[in-house]
Amino acid sequence: MPPPPSEDSAARSGVGQVSVEVGEAVVNLAKRRGFVFQSADIYGGFRSAYDYGPVGVLMLRNVKEAWWNAMVQQRADVVGLDASILSPPAVWEASGHLTGFTDPLVECSNCGRRHRLDQLADPERCSHCGVAGDLGEPRQFNLMFRTHAGPVADAAAEVYLRPETAQGMFVNFANVMRVSRLRPPFGIAQIGKSFRNEITPGNFIFRTREFEQMEMEFFVPPPDAARWHEYWCAERLRWYSGLGIPEALLRLRPHDADELSHYSEATSDVEFRYPWGWGELEGIANRTDYDLRAHAGHSGQRLEYHNAATGERYVPYVIEPAAGATRAMMAFLLAAYHTEEVRGERRVVLRLHHSLAPFKAAVLPLSRKDALTGRAREVLGILSPHWMVDYDETQSIGRRYRRQDELGTPYCVTVDFDTLDDGAVTIRDRDSMHQDRLPISKLVDYLSTRLAD
Ligand code: ATP
């Protein structure tokens, strides 16, 4: 995972940092254990996207579920939405993305490599061949993917893949307010795929052309916007630390005025200390009333809050916490990766928060004898209605523990020969490696209590 040229390469290793070596080990583990595969691997790989394997898909779902739980389930003032990925140009014309959603592109006339100008450490020098002065004038490159709806590929059939999920919430503002009977302050949340034709995708799943976002648009009375912006910055930072990212690896960074998006009055990024330095995890923007006014103007519809009883009428401001599910998954993996010596052997363990761990438990029969595997499958049958539980009867028990440690599985449940007599199993804790023995009948309660922590 080579560091991109623009990022702070001083942050290499040390306390409260994820070293470059750990970054490489996590990418390796992710591929080896089935978290993430290179897309179109058998055709040499496709740099724009990644595929999430049998274990990765579980973790990614858990990341999204944790977000949904905090942002929708546990809030009376937020409702969900699942809007379409394809949308007509009118949406993007109104939102300003057709003209404004661009990155500055330069091309080195010496080696032909293209760069995003704002990611170059030295804006005069090609970071690939090292030649200075050959980058030419930057041109604004629009990041939206365009395609055609229907059989005729003409201008009238042009549509766009969304580059953010947010516009789905704005165009549905009136629909949602009507059916949910909410009034500001209230939010609309959505999780889904977004697409950006990034000039330089890279750093594994940090920057891809197809990725998943978790966004919430929180509509507030305009005078309260600054206060709500502060509130959401604190909430979102707390979400990441609550899920196990150490505070030393997190920070909140307000944008400078010249960094702000075309719609934003104030933005702060939640940043994570990646192996190459600080980088964005999530942006929390005060989008003002820009989007609602723009869509109202272009569509001719009224997009405002109106209180029929008091006559009060205004266009709400919007505070938007916009996170990447795939980028967050990478940060959770990097923060969870640990190695330690156990009885002279090196152990790799993902200390993932229980709610993010792909499997909550693994059932391991001590041997492959039918009597044991039969009993172990019964235990699996008791646990799997409650949680994703892995089952493994291959190799030695020590190797199977190590495999589960690498997957971040909080509990291993071992079925041994005594189980056949006493109906009890041994439970091993991932982090302390402490073992408890208890009757199978108490297993669900035991795990429920511990997994809820
Ligand atoms: P960057 O400056 O890194 O390009 P951005 O400021 O354009 O990101 P936002 O528009 O704020 O990103 O998008 C919200 C979130 O979506 C980001 O914080 C990130 O987690 C995620 N995200 C954006 N672009 C990508 C991408 N190309 N690959 C993966 N995740 C992304």
Query: Spans of 5+ residues with little confidence (pLDDT < 50)?
Result: 1-15
Number of helices: 13
CATH topology of the largest domain: BirA Bifunctional Protein, domain 2
The spatial strand order of the largest sheet comes to 3-10-11-17-14-13-12
CATH architecture of the largest domain: 2-Layer Sandwich
User: First CA to last CA: what distance?
Assistant: 33 Å
CATH class of the largest domain: Alpha Beta
- Beta content: 25-35%
Explain what the structure shows.
The chain starts with 19 loop residues before the first helix and ends with a helix. It is α+β, with helices and mostly antiparallel strands. The chain has helices spanning 20-32, 56-73, 89-95, 97-100, 166-171, 173-180, 225-242, 290-299, 325-336, 370-383, 397-407, 417-422, 443-451; strands at residues 36-38, 50-52, 78-80, 86-87, 102-107, 114-116, 139-142, 146-148, 158-161, 186-195, 210-220, 250-254, 266-274, 277-288, 305-306, 313-314, 317-324, 337-342, 345-350, 361-365, 389-391, 411-415, 424-429, 435-439. It folds into 2 domains: 20-88 and 163-334, Bira Bifunctional Protein, Domain 2 (BirA Bifunctional Protein, domain 2), CATH 3.30.930.10; 359-451, 3-Layer(aba) Sandwich (Rossmann fold). Strand 15 (305-306) and strand 16 (313-314) form a beta hairpin. Helix 2 (56-73) packs across helix 9 and helix 3 (89-95) packs across helix 8 (290-299). It contains 13 helices and 24 strands. The strands form 7 sheets. Strands 3-10-11-17-14-13-12 form a 7-stranded mixed beta sheet, with helices on both faces. Strands 21-20-22-23-24 form a 5-stranded mixed beta sheet, with helices on both faces. The structure holds adenosine-5'-triphosphate. Adenosine-5'-triphosphate binds at residues 164, 196, 198, 207-208, 211, 213, 280-283, 322-324, 326-327.
